[in-house]
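Hi Y.,

Following your request, here is the sequence exactly as I used it, all 179 residues.
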Amino acid sequence: MATTLITAAEVVRGGIARPTPADVALDATLIAPHIAPAEYRWVLPTLTEAFYNTLTAEKGTSTAFSTTSYQALWDEHLKTVCAEAALYEAAPFIVIQAGSNGLYLNNNEYGQNAGIEGLKFYQDTLRGRIEVNTRRMRDWLCTCAAALPGFSSTAAGCPEEDCAPDLPGDLYSTFGIVI
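Below is the corresponding structure, written out as tokens. Let me know if you'd prefer a different format.
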């Protein structure tokens, strides 16, 4: 039984990290250990633990859901939030690695490591996107609650007049600009 919604392969090949599959540039083994903590931190609070467990059991090791409404949630919101959260949590461990010589910035012959400032910028940008996409997902969940077997709208805090109001600067955050 799968214990997370997204796999490392889906993160690197799903077009989230960059428009085309990134499995050439990103090592899935560096992302895999950070998926469960990422989903626990960023996804579980929005979905509720019971619904998260329902979705995890439904998806299993597949790349798709058999329930149409679950697949719509995955395609429109959840896959992106899970992938961005996994990248956010994995980023420090990709930029800074541990070896026999201690902690070091990972450099290679094909590019230069962005360093700590680049890491901070990347995480700030990802965090902004995660927050916006999580609010969008929560709005969608509140609107579509009746069509989602196993989702408790009251447990998730729905309905509210405006389930997740837009914050100033959301437009910029969705484009990856941190203000």
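The two ends are 41 Å apart (CA to CA).

Thanks again,
Q.
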